[in-house]
């Protein structure tokens, strides 16, 4: 079987570079969690990172999810890795940091919610895309889930909150990126207006907000907001996040750079940095960071850790886990299942 290798000229390094930036921000955003309230700089950095890093990551995931993947491949690429990494986190929590927890497969640990959400998004999108105005439907669902108290149960709140970004990426065409890059002044002006209105309204209403508003996990009640205020704040979050996702397109380089490899290997970085963070979080080290030198050292550590986790060994492990063969019994042909539920041959190549 011939393997098609993408040439340097045809590869979209713009998206690799965008993902490289995002994965570094994911690592930084987690590692500053215990200390972000210690200094104004870390507080501002926390707000900036969480206002767009996961929306942008999920938007790009949606963009790369256009091709149909068989149900067996979804199990192989998402469900099997989820189960394996859940077990790894469980063993780490229990035997290394001695955290009181259980193997709750319906409540993802740390960042593994993304794998669960991605599975549901890939399953649901063939149906959702047939609904007229599906983007607005998904935003409405993201607003309404803020009334629930589901917590981390099957990561439903975050799955619905972030789905509009996945769906937008799914619909997005490659040629539109250049259009967005050319419209950066308009997008930046719109972003400034939205930020002015958003924070002006917050200060006028004397509402106390935290970066939690961008997490998607917490209900309006959890964040101390009335349903009406909560929905308005969440709408503002959607506006800010979408504008930031597109405005940043103007500053992301389009050529290959030394950091482009991070965009190629986001999964090992995403999965393994949480294990290291969990160990350090169990110590007083991260909580005590409050000087400029300590802050600089932490940020440098996050960048170096990202490169270390993008090395060959972690990448091979992740690739091996997501390549475990899966063979499911074929359903009757008369069920009329959508393409996502087609069952390919064993070891069928990923589309």
Compact summary:
The protein is 60% helix and 0% strand. With 351 residues, the protein is mainly alpha-helical. The protein has one domain.
Question: What's the helix and strand layout?
Answer:
Elements: H1 13-31, H2 40-50, H3 53-63, H4 71-95, H5 113-128, H6 134-144, H7 156-171, H8 174-182, H9 184-204, H10 227-247, H11 260-264, H12 266-281, H13 292-309, H14 312-321
Helix pairs in contact: 1-2, 1-3, 1-12, 1-13, 3-7, 3-10, 4-5, 4-12, 5-7, 6-7, 6-10, 9-10, 12-13, 12-14
What do you see in this structure?
The chain has helices at 13-31, 40-50, 53-63, 71-95, 113-128, 134-144, 156-171, 174-182, 184-204, 227-247, 260-264, 266-281, 292-309, 312-321. It is an all-alpha fold and 351 residues long. It has one domain. The two termini are 15 Å apart. The model is unreliable at 1-8 and 344-351 (pLDDT under 50).
List descriptors.
351 residues, mainly alpha, 14 helices, disordered N terminus, disordered C terminus
**Quick one: overall form?**
globular
- The overall number of domains is 1
Please trace the helix and strand order, writing H or E for each element: HHHHHHHHHHHHHH
Approximate strand percentage? under 5%
Largest sheet: none
* Helix fraction by DSSP (H/I, runs of at least 4): 55-70%
Structural classification: mainly alpha
Report the mean per-residue pLDDT as an integer. 88
DSSP helical segment count: 14
Radius of gyration: 21 Å
Give the beta-strand count.
0
Report how far the terminal alpha carbons are from each other.
15 Å
Give the low-pLDDT segments.
Answer: 1-8, 344-351
